Amino acid sequence: MSVVLRPMVGHDVTAVAKLEMALFGEEAWSPDMLASELAGEPGRYYLVAAEEGVIAGYAGLLAPGGGQADVLTVGVAQERWGEGIGAALLENLLTEAGRRGCTEVFLEVRTDNDRAQRLYRRYGFVGIGVRRGYYQPSGADALVMRHVIARARPATPARPARGSRRWRRGGAA
Predict the structure, then answer these.
(1) Which superfamily does CATH assign the domain made up of 4-148 to?
(2) Is the whole-model pTM more than 0.70?
(3) What is the mean pLDDT of the chain?
């Protein structure tokens, strides 16, 4: 068996909402909120990690243009922690952000969620601030993190070998 990443669709909302509730309790997004995210702005991108029809994780990104993107959510079923599902979801979000021309990605994570923070740091996110009382209704603080998407450097023309007829002292051809 292997996990497959695919776009989240409307019929996934019930399973994702159930997983969301198991992971985040009173701070979970409702099924209506999830459904509105899928039907919302064109800059939104959601995917699920599924295995034999069972959703093991999900993630969402907002990348409307303008160079910035936001990781909106990442969740993996507790019984599947440590299998690389969260990493695969995050990698996919970062790839999509880069594909959309984004140069940086932001996210908020609970200050007491060390596991998630380690994952994000492994992918180059750094803490840049704290939002006090961000999570409601608990009032938990959020660490704001930022990731800079490395741009591929343009290829530099190869210099001819020294024995080549085009090589002259001073670099002029």
Answers:
(1) Gcn5-related N-acetyltransferase (GNAT) (3.40.630.30)
(2) yes
(3) 88
